[in-house]
Amino acid sequence: MNVRATTExxxxxxLKGISRRFCEAVAGIRYEDIPDDxxxxxxxxxxxxxxxxxxxxxxxxxxxIGAQLSRWEKDGSATSLVTKKRLSxxxxxxxxxxxxxGLDFDDMHDSARIHSFCVxxxxxxxxxEDIGNVDGRKFLLALTVAAEMHARLGFTCYNSLGxxxxxxxxxxxxxxxxxxxRLLDQDAETLLNTFGLAxxxxxxxxxxxxxxxxxxxxxxxxxxxxxxxxxxxxxxGITGPFQPLEGNAGLFKLQERGEVRPDELMEGMGKEWRxxxxxxxxxPCCRCNHTSISLAIRLREQGLRPExxxxxxxxxxxxxxxxxxxxxxxxxxxxxxxxxxxxxxFARALTDGHVDLRTYTRPNIxxxxxxxxxxxxxxxxxxxxxxxxxxxxxxxxxLKDGSATEIHETMTPGSPELxxxxxxxxxxxxxxxxxxxxxxxxxxxxxxxxxxxxxxxxDIRELVALMPSADL
Length: 472
What we know:
Blueprint: H1 18-27, H2 36-55, H3 62-72, E1 78-79, E2 86-87, H4 89-102, E3 108-109, H5 117-131, H6 136-156, H7 167-170, H8 172-183, H9 188-199, H10 207-211, H11 215-235, H12 263-266, E4 278-279, H13 290-301, E5 309-316, H14 318-324, H15 335-339, H16 342-352, H17 368-374, E6 377-381, E7 393-399, E8 404-409, H18 422-437, H19 441-452, H20 461-466
Parallel strand pairs: 5-6
Antiparallel strand pairs: 1-2, 3-4, 5-7, 7-8
Helix pairs in contact: 1-9, 2-4, 2-6, 2-18, 2-19, 3-4, 4-5, 4-11, 5-6, 5-8, 5-11, 6-8, 8-9, 8-11, 9-11, 13-16, 16-17, 18-19
């Protein structure tokens, strides 16, 4: 689904009460309303996300976060999935969210420009552990609600990233709080307080990704932590803003500067499922790189080799360019910088013919030959593409023999247009669990099978107990 190309001036008088109506609609969604294919999609994203958490068990920053939280807390009602140590629900949500986002291998809704399950799944798992006796059907309902509302908020706030926000965080805390509210059986009024308290914590600058630093992966964790805090405080009677979207200092005016499409928020609610639009990532890096990587692999399959390349120009839509278009600075020796760099990602893909979890590890990110090729790559904004488009990438290659070639693609690998199969999702899960925890396919198969039958589970804590952990 593509958002509309133009937007009209927003009449905020007409929007009065939209936050309340939104929460009322969320409160009315039933498990029976969710189509079977959407439930299956959500199950697959649970598998995908738990795999990425396992894969990130030894990723830079995760052990350090876990050590600090464990020093502060000796016991709690929720679980750090990477260490199996007990923490308070907000802190369990925080470290699990950071791990889910740590490899930049987690889901993406390309049109809404959000990662969701790295926020909503850790938040809801931590809440469900604390609540206790949350069965699989109830959990699937709440998780689907959270993912659906995150996508709808992303469509509504369609250029959030272009303004410097990280909508995975700013919108994720709002969406996840609603899912937890459903776990807590909140009525519409309490959901509105939950939503308002989440909005009071809605933040998240994109500067971490631009600077290529470890705080990038903490964004999902911070959002998950805020969602847990908001929902439980509202249940305890704390009131929040009742105009978190439309108020004079609400999301639409403050963070989004009036650049919103409010009709996207509730249009077709309960009938049209934006959750169908989420993508699985085949490559562990910023989604803005994915089409360019696929084109590099295609060029190598056609016979192009790095030693034949004089120069490369990559043209990307404006927001993608802002996100991954910096020159590659190999002296930084930064994994996050490499994950958010089109030049490195293209150079690595053309050199190796593939991109995998080891692509974004040391010493690969400082490979002299790859760095030399990346230095011959320039990334530019493409004025012929919609600024917020995710898929397009145009590659122009000048060869040392004086010839040239160009290649262009608009569809992104792993998207609903070019989907990964179920077996590819399972294979990715096994790969991640081997990469992060050294576990065989046989050792992790019970997790896959449990999730596929999640609606039969009596208590979601049984799934948490199945997850293996790292010795950190």
